[in-house]
Design a protein that fits this description.
Distance between the termini: 41 Å
Strand content: 25-35%
Helix content: 25-40%
Radius of gyration: 18 Å
Largest sheet: 14 strands, mixed
Number of strands: 14
Order of helices and strands: EHEHHEHEEEHEEHEHEEEEEHH
């Protein structure tokens, strides 16, 4: 069911992060994430987005060799109690920041997923979303998620995606039809993909007249070397903040509901969208 298209009542300051995790070192990466979260809080952020699989690092050889060491376990309600994440819990509480961070999650039914963990401002950790669109060899290690998810922060509705999800217009559109004001995408783009990295998420913003927050890993060793470029886009796909292709960065921007309202008034694609595209198509020769 399509949610009504409301507008939040107050701005929301968000941080997107690019950083270099260590393959297989969940405890060490959690400590690094905690430091990045505190930096985001000091910059005024109320939400922070860290890259795909950040807690274990996006390094398929390590993920394949040591799933027990690289995965976090979720209970039937999606709650993650792993003590290695205690620094994350403490940082979210102390900074008053809601955190979205990538992890490999092991579910009670045996499924292993690429997950976006949500750490709330009280420090509770749960699986917020499982990546639906798996890319390439990810299919050999992980199962796809089977549903979308929307994170509610204050009165903002933030659709969740992970990396390759954002390459599919339908994924962002599903979030927008659920009333999303923004779309958060922890990602892992490899060196050489800069054109696609900078195009897909700007397009999802304009397609759906919503803010988009893209985070990415950076650095590493070929063939698993990542290209940074973490960014935030306004509802017309214009850059609010962008990181360099190298180096750690915590980037902050404020999502303004007045900009959202003005954009949707001027560019009414969501309101004008046809319920279908006209049924059977006509073919003709030229």
């Amino acid at each position: 069911m399509t949610q009504p298209r409301t507008v939040p009542t107050a701005p929301l300051t968000v941080a997107t992060v690019q950083a270099t995790p260590t393959p297989g070192d969940v405890a060490g990466n959690a400590l690094d994430a905690a430091d990045l979260i505190r930096q985001a809080g000091e910059l005024g952020a109320r939400v922070a987005v860290l890259p795909e699989l950040f807690l274990c690092a996006y390094h398929p050889p390590t993920l394949a060799a040591d799933p027990t060491g690289t995965d976090v376990a979720a209970d039937p309600a999606g709650v993650v109690a792993d003590p290695r994440l205690d620094p994350l819990r403490a940082a979210a509480r102390e900074a008053g920041v809601t955190v979205l961070v990538g992890a490999a999650a092991r579910h009670p039914d045996g499924r292993r997923t690429i997950a976006a963990l949500v750490v709330d401002r009280a420090g509770a950790v749960r699986v917020g979303y499982d990546k639906q669109q798996l890319w390439g060899d990810e299919r050999e290690l992980f199962s796809p998620g089977d549903r979308g998810a929307t994170l509610l922060v204050d009165d903002w509705r933030l659709g969740l995606g992970i990396c390759y999800d954002g390459c599919f217009p339908e994924h962002g559109r599903a979030a927008a039809l659920d009333g999303a004001h923004g779309y958060l995408c922890p990602s892992g783009y490899l060196a050489g993909s800069e054109h696609r990295r900078d195009l897909y998420y700007a397009a999802r913003a304009l397609d759906n007249t919503m803010f988009v927050v893209f985070s990415n890993s950076v650095g590493g060793v070929d063939p698993w070397r990542f290209n940074g470029g973490a960014a935030m886009y306004d509802p017309q796909g214009r850059v609010l903040a962008r990181g360099a292709d190298e180096g750690t960065a915590v980037l902050v921007a404020t999502l303004d509901p007045a900009v959202l309202a003005a954009t949707r008034a001027a560019h009414s694609m969501l309101a004008d969208r046809l319920p279908d595209q006209g049924g059977p198509r006509m073919s003709m020769s030229g």
